[in-house]
Amino acid sequence: MDTPILEMRNITKTFPGVKALKDVSFQVQKGEIHCVVGENGAGKSTLMKVLSGVYPFGDYSGDILFEGQVQKFTSIRDSEHAGIAIIYQELALVPELKVYENIFLGNEIKNRFTINWNETIKRARQALDKVKLDVNPEAKVKDLGVGKQQLVEIAKALSRDTKVLILDEPTSALNESDSENLLHLLRDLKVHGVTCIMISHKLKEVIAIADRVTVLRDGQTVITLDAHKGQVTETVLIKHMVGREIDNIYPVRESKPSNEIVLEVKDWNAYDPQLGRTILRDVNFNVKKGEIVGFAGLMGSGRTELALSLFGNAKRYRVNGEMFVHGKKANYTHPQYAIQDGVAYSTEDRKAAGLILIQDVKHNISLANLRAIAQRGVVNENAEIQVAEKYRTALNIKTPSIEQKVSNLSGGNQQKVCLGKWLFVNPNVLILDEPTRGIDVGAKFEIYSIMNKLVEQGMSIIMISSELPEVLGMSDRVYIVSAGRITGELPIQEATQEKIMALATN
Amino acid sequence: MSAVNSPNAGPLSPVSGTQAAPSFLASLRRVLQENIRDYAMFIALFLIMAFFTYTTNGLFLSSRNIANLLNQTGYIAVLAVGMTLVIIIRQIDLSVGFLSGFLGALAAIAMAKYGLPVWLVIPMVLVLGAIAGLITAYPIARLGIPSFVASLAGWLIYRGLLLVVLAGTGTVIIADEIFNAIGNGYLPDFLPIAPGVHTITILLGVLAIIFYIWSEFSNRGKKQAYNFEVLPMNLFVLKLVFVTAILAGITWILAGYNGLSWTVVIMLIVVGVYHFITTQTVLGRHIYAVGGNPEAAELSGINVRRIIFIVFASMGFLASLSGILFASRLRSATPTAGTLFELDAIAAAYIGGVSAAGGVGTIIGSLIGALVYTSLTNGMNLMQMDIAYQYVIRGAVLAIAVIFDVMTRNRAK
What we know:
The complex is a heterodimer. Chain A has helices at residues 44-51, 76-82, 99-103, 117-130, 146-158, 176-191, 203-209, 234-242, 303-310, 335-340, 350-354, 361-366, 381-395, 411-425, 441-456, 468-474, 497-504, and strands spanning 4-15, 18-29, 33-37, 61-66, 69-71, 84-87, 164-168, 195-199, 212-217, 220-226, 261-272, 277-288, 292-297, 318-325, 328-329, 343-346, 374-375, 378-379, 429-433, 460-464, 477-482, 485-491. Chain A is α/β, with parallel strands linked by helices. Chain A folds into 3 domains: 4-242, 3-Layer(aba) Sandwich (Rossmann fold), CATH 3.40.50.300; 257-342 and 427-506, P-loop containing nucleotide triphosphate hydrolases (Rossmann fold); 357-426, no CATH class. Chain A is globular. The model of chain A has no long low-confidence stretch (mean pLDDT 88). Chain B is mostly helical. Chain B has 17 helices and 2 strands. A two-stranded antiparallel ribbon of chain B has the order 1-2. Mean pLDDT of chain B is 88; it is low at 1-19. At the A-B interface, helix 10, helix 11, strand 18 and helix 13 of A face helix 12 and helix 13 of B.
C-alpha cells in the first residue's frame, strides 16, 4: 500500500482562454478506491481525460507515472494498453450489438482471418461472472437496463486486463438498488486487486466506498483525505469543494401554497406504441397555486413519461384521461399549446433535449417565446439581448457573454439557461424534471432558491427528482410513482425516505 | 495538429471591453484566424477568379463573361438557397433537379401547346413546385421515412414524368419573349447618360453600397451599445473599403456590358429574402433550432413537422423557379433539363459551409458556394479544358472545401 500505482505530477492543461488544470498532483495507491470530488467545472473530467490519453501527451504539461514509468499516452488505445480503462458518464456501448460483441469490440479474439465467436462468448461469460451480472451474452445491449449496461461496460474493461478502472459519475443514471449493486461490485474488485478511481457528485456514495478522496476546486487540488483516518465526512467534503460551509442546502421558503387548484389530472392513461405497452395507468393528482409538488420514484417508473404526456404529448403516446388547467379542460396536441396555456416542461436531459448546444445563450433563452419579442414575425434583436441579459443576471448564469455557445458552459450554468428559457415563457405550472442532476452543490442551492422565489410569486412547480433528500427538502407534497401508477401521496410532514422508498418499490 | 492546438501563451483576451489597441497587423491576424471560416469562402472565390483572370489573359474578368457567369449561376444558386435550408434541418432533397426540369417542361407546354399567357403560367408552375415539395415532405415528416429515400423516389418519378410530358414532341421551343427575357434579358436603361455604361445598374450599385455601409455602421453601433466585441476601427474601415471595392467593381463590370440581367435580379431577390428570413425572423430561428436539436426544438414548442413541410415547400418552390430560369435561358424545354442540378446545388451548399450535422449554414455562404462552383466551370471552359478533368477538379475543390470546414470547426472547439 505504499508505492503508488499511479501518480500525476504538476499537470497543467490549458484550453484557449481557460486554464482548466493548474499544477494538479495526486497519487493513487494500488488496490484502493480513490474518489475525486469537486464542483462542476473543477477539472475532474479534464484530469481523467488527460490520464486516459484523450488529451494526448504534449497537450498538457506535467508527468503521468504509471507503475513507476513516465507515460506518454497519445490516445485512449495507449492508456487501455497500459491497463487504464475509463468508463464515462454516457455509456459507450453499441445498442444494436450483442453483449459479447460489445465486450470484445475493438479487442476481437481472432483466428487467422475470422473472429472466433465461440471463444468470444466463453470469455464474455467469464467477464460477466467477474461483475456478477447474470445476463445472456447473446442479448442485445439495448434490451438491458441502464444498470446492467453499466456492468457490461465494466466487464468490457476487465476483459482487457485492466489495472486501474476510472468511473466518471457511474451512478448518475442508476436507481438506488443498481447503485448499491455497483458499489458492492467495486468493493469486490478491490479485493481482487483492481484499483478504482471514481468521480462522483453523490457524497454519500463517496463516503460509503472511498479509501481516500481527492478534492479539486477551480482546476487545483485542494486536499487528499484519508477515510481510514476518519477525515471523510459530508461537511468536510462540501467545505473543501465549495470553500465554505453550507449549513442548510435547502433554503427556507416563506410562502405557503394556496388552496386554489391550478392543475388537475384525472384517470390519465398512456400507451406507448413504440414500446408496445401501457406506460401510465389511472393517474390522478393535482397541483395547487404556489406549491412545489415532488414526484418521487425509481428510474423508469414513468414520471418523465407522465410529464411528457401532459406537456403536449410530444412523444405521441396514445393518451386518454382528463386534464384541467385552472379548471378548464385542456387538450394539448403539441407542446406549443401547453406553453401558450402556461404549462412548461424542463427536461431531465438538458444536452439531448433541452438546449441547442451549437447556439448561444441568448438564442437558447429566447427560443420558446420568440413571438413575444417579434413584430410580424421579425425578431427584435435588441429586445432579445435585453431578455437574455435579464435572465443572465437574475439566474446568475456564469458566462463571458450571452453570445457564448451553451456547449461551452458548465452543467449548472446550462441548467440555468434551460430555466431561463422557461421563465421567459412565464408559465403558471412549471414541470422540472431532475432540475439538479449532474450539477454541483453551489449551483443546486441557487436553483433551489430560484424555485422558492418562483412559488412565492405564485407559480406552481412539479419537481420530478430521483434524489430523495431533494424531494424531502423542497416539496410541499409528494406523490410517489411506481410502474406507471401513483402509489402514494404524502404531505411533507409525513414523508420520510423510508416511506417513499417503500411506496416506490411497491 | 498539436502544434496548432497548443495553448497560446499570451494573456487571456477579454471578450468585451476595451484594452490597449494592439498593432494593426496583429489584430488583423487575430481577426482572420478567429473568423477564418467566415472569410475563407470569399478568399477562395477571390483566388479562383484571380487565377482564371490570369490564365485567360483577363478574358475571365471581362464584362461580357462576368455577366454570362452570373447568368449561369442563377438557376444553381436558387436551388442552393433552398437546399441550404433543407440541409440545415438535417434532411436532403434529391428530387429537385428533375422536378425543376419537369416543371420547366410544364411551363413550356402550357405556353406552346395550350397558349396560356405567361402571367398565368409562371405563378401556376411556382405553386405546383411548392405542392411537389409538400408531397416530398409528407412521408418524411409524417411517417419518418429518411429524406434520402423519399426524395430519391421523387428523383425517379420526376425524371419519368419529364420524359412522359415531352414524349410526343421532344424538345419544346418557347416563343414567348417575356418568358425568354427572364433568362436572357437585361434591365432596361431609361437614363442613358454615357454610351456603353448602364446607368440604372450604376445607380443600383451605388444604392447597394450605401445600404451596406449604413447597415454595417448601425450594427456596430448596436453591438457597442451592448458592450459586445466589435472590430477595431482600422479593421472595420478596411472591411468597408474592401467590400465596397468589390461591390463597385462588380457594378462597374456589369454596367460595361448590358447591365443587370433579370436572372441576376431574381437571384438577388431570392438571396435577399431568404437571408432576411434566416437571420431576422421567428421562422428562421425555428429552422436553425430544428436543425441544431430537433428534440429540444419540439419540447420548446416548435412544431418540427410544420418546419419540415415549410422547408420542403420552399425547396419545391425554388426548384420550379430554377426550372423557369433554365427553360427561359435555353428558350426551350428539353428531356435532359435538370439533370444533376440537385447535386450541383448540394455541392454549392457544402462549399458554402453548411454542415450535414445540421443547424449550421448561411444563405450568403451558399450563394458564394454557387459562385465558386460556376466560376470553376466557366473558367475551365474558357481555358478550353477537357470536360473530364473539369469534373475531377470540381470534385477536388468540393473535397478541399469540406475538409477545410471540418478542420477549422474542430479547431474552434
